Amino acid sequence: MASILVLGVKVPFTRGGADALVHSLIAELRRRGHDADSIELPFQVWPKEVLLNQVAMWRAIDFQNFAGKQVDLVIATKFPSYFARHPRKSLWLVHQHRPLYELYAGRYSDFSDDPRDEELRALLSSGDGKAIAECQCITGISKNVVERLRQFNGIDGTPLYPPLPLGDRYRTAPGEDFVLSVGRLCAIKRVDLMIKALPIVHRNVHLKVVGTPDEPGILDYFNNEIAKHHLQDRVEFLGRVDDATLLDLYARCRAVYYGPHDEDYGYVTLEAMASAKPVVTTTDSGGVLEFVQHEEQGLVVAPTTDAIGHAVNRLIEDPALASRLGAGGRQYIESSGLASSGWDNVVSTLLSPLHHAERALRAAENEG
Amino acid sequence: MRLAWISPLEVDLVGMHSHSAYFSRMLLPEIALHADVELFRNAFTPHPTLPSHHYLTLAARHAERPFDLLLYQIDAHPLNRWSRVAVGLMPGVVLFHDFVFRDFGPEPVLNSAWRHHVERFKDAATPWPVREGEYTQQGPFGFREAAWGIACGFSSARLHDEYRRNVTLSLSREGSIVRSFYLPFPVPPASAQERERGSSDRLHICFDGSVRPEHRAHMLLLALKQTQCPVHCEWLVDPEELSQAQHLCEEFGVGDRVSLHSPRTAERWQNLLLHADAACHLAFTAYDQLGPFCSMSLTSGASVVVLDYGDAFYLPENAVWKISPGEYEHMELACVFDELWGERRAMPSQELAFLRALHDPRAVAKELLAAVAQYREVQRSMLALWHDIRSQAREKLFDEAAELAAADAEKCVRDLLVGSWRELGWMNT
């Protein structure tokens, strides 16, 4: 059994899909008898220059031995954890620093035309290329993430979908008159589109929002929109909820709204599908569209409040459609191996550098 | 000449609203015959005939095989905002279309310290601006893009004029010298087909315009109602405005005198021109550019009717009918229709030949190449300066990053960081 470190990146006081991924992976490694643990360093995005220091910190730490115990393998996840140095390094890429790449020049990037920013972008981009190429196993959590890596850094990887964090515990129940939104509260997740769509959604329909703020001022902005549209009695912020509550909300909702901009993967999509609920998403939601096809598992509409509002109304007015799309999602989950059974493939893929090392060692011994 | 063509190309996606894409489609076949062209755009999809890269790889590609000239195209289409950011990455020639200097900039550069950075090209001692500061924007946001051009080209005479008068800080200015040029819209030869005019029992006019008030559809419809001549109007309109256009026609009681056509493509407009006695471009706006449709009309031989305002103010008096905007606009229009019905004369062949030569895509491409070729030396020196500034930026960046970490244990932390940066090859040993 091997000693394995899963390398994570932690933004204090927030919790997102990447945190769930790290902890689920450790649990699955331990279940298979490995001695697994995580190392998470705090991550700051501002001021931008500090990114160089965080890269350097990951680079400077010796990950091969801790207290006399040899580390057989490290598994990196998010930027900049893959800058860690180790002779056996796997990558399960959640995402790179997106403002440098596909978000550049858009509203979700803070990189300007300052030559220092451009130099910073060039350094980090070339650093990504070098650090990721060191990995013996290069995978990403979705086709979207892997494709970005290929396009921007010229590195090939394999999509390796994370199985559902709560395995086979998802269940369904008759839909009640609320739409559920789950995820960190930040601009790129675009919960505001659903809030602003509510005025054209049937009045009896409410919105329940699970997740904590991840950006300064975001709740003020939401509350301002709510007040502006007189929606105080139709939107409920639930904050972070425990697993049982989350499963219950998924089971009882009429539909799940998940319309982020170019999402990496999106656990929420799969959780909704596992709960047999239709997903309302948008045409530019990235990884979500690897699972949701229009009128198959949900409704894929333009990223506008009108389109989202009308999509929700369709599901409210036509319960048979909502049931059919929900069933389509559940069927997809059952046939895709994305329930808990999918972990075998994930673990064996990420541990492949160990097997290669063992084979190389045996070959050397035989030759010797 | 090795030419980097940094521009939107997705004609199908943004249609005629993207003049950059239109220029690319019209000019690249000819330009590629005379220059070694590589395309840079906000996509990874290959181009059918030319090497194509993502624009963020421009500097790396230049390091591999240096370009003699970088040519950026910028327009006001929201999908092309990336090109407005890109223009600040490396200095080059900038070709502006349908651009509004008073527009807000793209979000990542709304609070850009571009004045400081442009000043660095002129004076290396200019201090680095404070990080994340609020920078004074002396002048409209769009001046930033104009400032980054080592030379600026314009497909709008009005915009060119505004640039020369108002943009005082720019890489294109050296003392009293301003490196700028005007480039006419290329028009595909289809519109130059000879037509038989005046044989119909009605006056055929075509109109390109939105239902929005500044496009003056209401004035045109009123004129159609008031004119004494038998007239029929072919109105080219965006698909999403079709029903509103229909309602407008009914409201003015001229539904039987108007046929609606959609979508607004160059091909469709050229087809309408084939049977038109007159073409109307009536935008009453200081910002919108007339664009290629008006140039197509001018080269078609049909009479061209414009509103004497904004871009159209710069059209030659002897080539178009100019209507004064205001209270009597519809009456003037009706009078023009009556007069055209009376005469229905073709544009004099000499004038028509001149206009066709002016807008011929091959001629425009050659003109562009000749214009930019004269800036090769300027480009070379600007890129050398750019290289120096980037080196200084890197040093400054490392200083700033080390300062952030070095509050208490300066030397120790700095050594740790520098060790890692060197190991990554970011710093020289």
Strand order of the largest sheet of chain B: 3-2-1-4-5-6-9
The main β sheet of chain B shows up as: 7 strands, parallel
The name of the CATH topology of the largest domain in chain B is Rossmann fold
Strand order of the largest sheet of chain A: 2-1-5-6-7-8
Counted up, domains of chain B total: 2
- Summed up, the helix count of chain A is 12
Low-confidence parts of chain A: none
In CATH, the architecture of the largest domain in chain B is: 3-Layer(aba) Sandwich
Would you give the CATH topology of the largest domain in chain A?
A: Rossmann fold
Provide structural commentary.
Chain A contains twelve helices and 14 strands. Chain A is of the alpha/beta class and 368 residues long. Chain A has two domains: 3-163 and 341-367, Rossmann fold (3-Layer(aba) Sandwich), CATH 3.40.50.2000; 178-338, Rossmann fold (3-Layer(aba) Sandwich), CATH 3.40.50. Chain A has a six-stranded parallel beta sheet. Chain A is globular and about 75 Å long. Chain B is an alpha/beta fold. Chain B folds into two domains: 2-186 and 363-384, Rossmann fold (3-Layer(aba) Sandwich), CATH 3.40.50; 189-359, 3-Layer(aba) Sandwich (Rossmann fold). Helices cover 42% and strands 15% of the residues of chain B. Chain B has helices at residues 11-14, 19-34, 58-64, 81-86, 114-122, 143-147, 157-166, 217-226, 242-251, 266-274, 291-300, 329-343, 349-359, 361-373, 376-405, 410-423, and strands spanning 2-6, 36-41, 52-54, 69-74, 92-96, 149-154, 173-174, 177-178, 180-182, 203-208, 231-236, 258-261, 278-281, 303-307, 321-323. A seven-stranded parallel beta sheet of chain B has the order 3-2-1-4-5-6-9. In chain B, helix 10 packs parallel to helix 11 and helix 11 (291-300) runs antiparallel to helix 13. Chains A and B meet through helix 2 and helix 3 of A and helix 4, helix 5, helix 15 and helix 16 of B.
Question: Secondary-structure blueprint of this entry?
Answer:
The complex is a heterodimer of chains A (368) and B (429).
Chain A lengths: L2 E8 L6 H15 L3 E8 L7 H11 L4 E2 L2 E2 L2 E4 L12 E5 L21 H19 L3 E4 L2 H11 L4 E2 L18 E5 L8 H7 L8 E5 L7 H11 L6 E5 L3 H10 L2 E3 L9 H8 L4 E4 L15 E4 L3 H13 L1 H18 L6 H8 L1 H16 L1
Parallel strand pairs in A: 1-2, 1-5, 5-6, 6-7, 7-8, 9-10, 9-12, 10-11, 12-13, 13-14
Antiparallel strand pairs in A: 3-4
Chain B lengths: L1 E5 L4 H4 L4 H16 L1 E6 L10 E3 L3 H7 L4 E6 L6 H6 L5 E5 L17 H9 L20 H5 L1 E6 L2 H10 L6 E2 L2 E2 L1 E3 L20 E6 L8 H10 L4 E6 L5 H10 L6 E4 L4 H9 L3 E4 L9 H10 L2 E5 L13 E3 L5 H15 L5 H11 L1 H13 L2 H30 L4 H14 L6
Parallel strand pairs in B: 1-2, 1-4, 2-3, 4-5, 5-6, 6-9, 10-11, 10-13, 11-12, 13-14, 14-15
Antiparallel strand pairs in B: 7-8
